[in-house]
Amino acid sequence: MIASLVVVAAVAAAWALAAGRLERWHVRAPLVMVLAGLTTGALTHNAVANSLDSGAAQHVAEIILAILLFLDATAVPAGRLWGNEPRAAARALLLAMPVSLLLTVLLGLVLLPSLKWAVLLVLACVIVPIDFAPAESLVRDPRIPARVRDVLNIEGGYNDGIISPLFLFALVLAGTTVDADSALEALAAAIPFAVKAIVVGLVLGALLGGLMNRAERHAWMTHQSRRIAVVVAPLLTYTVTVAIEGNGFVAAFVCGIAFRFVRQIGVRRRLAAATHAEDFELIEDTTAMLTIGMWFFFGIVAVYAFTTGIDWRIVLFALAALTVLRIVPILLAFLGSRFTWPERLMLGAFGPRGTTSIVFGLLAYNVLPTGDIENTVLLAMSLTVLGSVLLHGVGSSVAFRKAKVEEPAR
Predict the structure, then answer these.
(1) pTM exceeds 0.90
(2) Which of 208, 178, 172, 220 lies closest to 193 in space, CA to CA?
(3) Residues 315, 381 contacting (CB under 8 angstroms)
(4) What is the dihedral of CA 72, 74, 78, 82, to 10 degrees?
(5) Which SS3 state, helix, strand or coil, does residue 234 take?
(6) For residues 160 and 385, which has the higher predicted lDDT (pLDDT)?
(7) In the predicted model, is pLDDT for residue 69 greater than 90?
(8) How many CB atoms are closer than 10 A to CB 242?
């Protein structure tokens, strides 16, 4: 364990010292840390299984996901809940994403018939949500039309928060004998969890945001204390919600939406316009550090997953998840929209998988029955995320060097 910490710290330090130069070569932190993790995992994979399937690993993954969900919810551009293209964002989240989940389950029934549909639903929730950690420059690249970047940014921020209650419902269902009664029981158990989460998230998010506005108006806070308060918000929300047996992930996500909305009321009233952006610097840096460690750990996990055996059907399943299972639902959802066909193809093609899939995959591995089921989920997650690092992280950079994408006139 100590040796792994030394490696991750040393590699992270080396990347930080050369980040600017590496960025010019389109080499980013996820790729560097995954390569370091793969190398470390090849030497230590026998010790991974025990640490991976443990309560400590599960709790760490849960905390990371809660912070990520909160930060994603606060990252809405221009303070608009659905961005600058609300109808297009709704098409991506409320039409394309459910279709993608459904097609993923159906393909799983064909390729992996030994798995019951509840496990396939868990697997779909793991590999469908997009996350721009492997290719974050995509949502900033001016060569991509602004409205495409806006929709991708909203989808990447919201999809994991929307899927998380379905993911937890599927986990409960996957541990039972799947019939109509058990499905209704799982749903009945999930609804109170979600209701508590929404209430706690709204109350704490609005309360903390309002208290910060008031404290700032009376000059009670410092620059540092504001940044710390933002980091504390998702941690407090998650722990309180779990303590009352609610869904901590949904609560953290809802808290982020409410917190950002109330805080921006203060900005519009010029309470904190000059310093509001600084409030999120510490949580952004904290999240960056957590995800750097997560990418390293993912490399180790991937090596372990590969040693359990690679089935060509799972390889095909992961490849389909990154391509047709993403592109086809987007094209269907955007029929009749103002988006051009090249823009629709971009929305479908730019669907990287990252930390959300990793965390969901690790949680599923810890909860699902030991044996082939958990190994299949872990392998599918590893192949999908690793494929995304290569396809969306490295591949998109190479493609952009060879072709310039012009934004169409409106």
Answers:
(1) no
(2) 172
(3) no
(4) 60
(5) helix
(6) 385
(7) no
(8) 19
What is d(CA 245, CA 233) in angstroms, rounded to the nearest whole number? 18
The b/e string for 166-187 (b: 16+ C-beta within 10 A; e otherwise) is bbbbbbbbbbeebeeeebeebe
What structural domains and CATH numbers belong to the chain?
2-402 (1.20.1530.20)
Task: Kindly calculate the radius of gyration of the chain based on its CA atoms and give it in whole angstroms.
Answer: 21
Local structure of 83: helix, strand or coil:
coil
**3-state SS track over 73-110:** HHCCHHHCCCCCCHHHHHHHHHHHHHHHHHHHHHHHHH
* pLDDT over threshold 90, residue 104: yes
Closest CA to 262 of 311, 214, 310: 214
Helices (H), 273-371: 281-307, 312-322, 324-333, 341-349, 355-367
Q: b or e along 208-234 (b: 16 or more beta carbons within 10 Å of the residue's beta carbon)?
A: bbbebbeebeeeebeeeebbebbbebb
286: tokens are: 């904290």
- Is 140:149 a contact under the CB 8 Å cutoff? yes
**Residue 367: pLDDT band by 50, 70, 90 thresholds?**
confident
Distance CA 84, CA 147 (A): 7
Q: What is the pLDDT of residues 172-226, one digit of tens each?
A: 888 654 444 556 666 666 778 888 999 999 999 999 999 998 998 888 998 899 9
Alpha carbons 267 and 361: distance in angstroms, whole number: 38
The DSSP symbol for 395 reads I
Reported as a single tens digit per residue, the pLDDT across 178-188 is: 444 556 666 66
Percent of the chain with pLDDT over 90: 40
Angle between helix axes 117-127 and 97-111 (nearest 10 degrees) is: 130
| Model confidence at 329: pLDDT above 90 | yes
CA 214 to CA 118: how far, in whole Å? 47
- Cα separation, 95 vs 326, in Å, equals 12
**Helices 97-111 & 312-322, crossing angle to 10 degrees?**
170
- Length of the chain, in residues: 410
Q: What residue has token string 């992996």?
A: 112
Sign of CA pseudo-dihedral 28, 32, 38, 41: negative
Residues 237, 224: Cα–Cα separation, whole Å: 20
